[in-house]
Amino acid sequence: MVIHSKPGVLHSQPAKRDPGLELLCHRRLQHALAGMAGRILVCGGLYLDVKLEVSAYPREDTTCTCHAVSKARGGNSANTAVVLAELLPLVSVWWVGAVPVPATDPDAAFVLDALRRAGVETDLREEVSGCGLPTAYITVSRSTGSRTIVSTRNGLRELSPAHFSTALSADPAAWRWCHLECRQLPAVLHMAQAWADHAQRGAGLSVEVEKPSLNPTDLLPLLPLCDLLVFSRDFVEAHAADVVSILHYKIRPLLRYYPPPHAASEVVRIIRVE
What we know:
This protein has nine helices and 13 strands. The chain is of the alpha/beta class.
């Protein structure tokens, strides 16, 4: 589900997580950013994905044979950055997030190199010592196609709002859009406020909300700062009533500017179901 908090469109789509939410982000951001030149900043997690292919998902307390093992760069924000770099040739795409020190962590060096080879800049990253790279172990069943994921942060904290603000202040006029993966509140709210303080007038902000564990009420302060808000299907199903309240919160002010019957047509223009 996507909310454009400025005049735009709400899209509700039963997209599966992985790659559904990422695909939805990619399509909406591509539409919003088409023809744009300048820099886009994508902020969030960077993971090492370790994929294990098995004939069928194993029962508890049993052993099974793994037919193939592969590793790749993962994480919603990193994948979004790569797709934007592919789709928007006039844009310089930058990823920012926390990683272990790549000089001493081969996994961090591997995923950062994969981002750079895909056309994504990584020089704004925050390097954190004394931890490992977040890793997702993905068990893929060849018989059903199911993907079971066990992930760990490996002791790595999230990106600090202070580092994010410093990264923005280096060249604020260059940034045209920022996409935040809403991983932890209130830290993401502080980043959105930093974007509002540093970015040039007209620069856009999108926020991706995936984890059902997030409290919908905590998202309300984010709404006035966002141009685009993306909900995962899991989040919407877990918090349906709260999401409806969020929509009401965003639509109600329109009645002040579009008296009936014009308000109805304006709401239809802002909310559309695909």
